[in-house]
Design brief:
4-stranded antiparallel beta sheet, 34% strand, Immunoglobulin-like, DUF4232, single chain, 2 domains, 23% helix, disordered N terminus, 2 helices, alpha+beta, signal, DUF4232 domain-containing protein, globular
């Protein structure tokens, strides 16, 4: 009789553990499914603008605003090229955020653009008129580029760089 009670208790405990594990697995799968159903921010679901900022010097702010009715992920960093340049602007690797920036409808992600060396050490300086912007698709590939008109008199040189997408302006401009 005592053995039967121990066995029944053990079976009940095992069933409870299995049910808990199944629930945890189901929750993890649901979270993973939700994450994979959120698309990357792209040309089709964002509006991109660029503007001068008073500080720091030689910087501009790139803003991507989610214009869709669903959230999107601003993966990694924008890929930028000034005018007809064949190469993209380097990335400030120290600016990697702790998590991918998620944009709810109407929210924005920000990237700081360092246009030129403040000490004049950059080379090949020139005035640029347009910026080609493409997004990271989440798998390391780039989207098609969108051309954005730069503020008049935008000066760039070989020291130009861009940050990773940030969730706030201050973080984007601290680099």
């Amino acid at each position: 009789m005592r053995t039967a009670r121990i066995t029944a208790t053990g079976l009940a405990l095992a069933a409870t553990l299995l049910a808990g594990t199944a629930a945890t697995t189901a929750q993890a799968q649901a979270a993973e499914s939700a994450a994979t159903s959120i698309p990357a921010c792209s040309l089709t679901n964002t509006e991109v603008t660029v503007q001068n900022v008073p500080r720091p010097i030689n910087h501009q702010l790139l803003t991507a605003t989610n214009t869709s009715s669903k959230p999107c992920f601003a993966y990694a960093h924008p890929h930028l090229a000034f005018d007809a340049a064949q190469h993209v602007v380097p990335v400030v690797e120290d600016s990697i955020p702790q998590a991918v920036v998620t944009l709810e409808p109407g929210e924005s992600a920000y990237a700081g653009i360092n246009l030129s060396a403040a000490d004049g050490s950059g080379t090949n300086g020139r005035t640029a008129s347009v910026l080609r912007v493409s997004f990271d698709e989440g798998d390391g590939t780039q989207s098609r580029a969108r051309t954005v008109t730069l503020p008049k008199g935008t000066w760039v040189d070989s020291k130009a760089a861009v940050t990773y997408w940030q969730s706030d302006v201050e973080s984007a401009l601290m680099w």
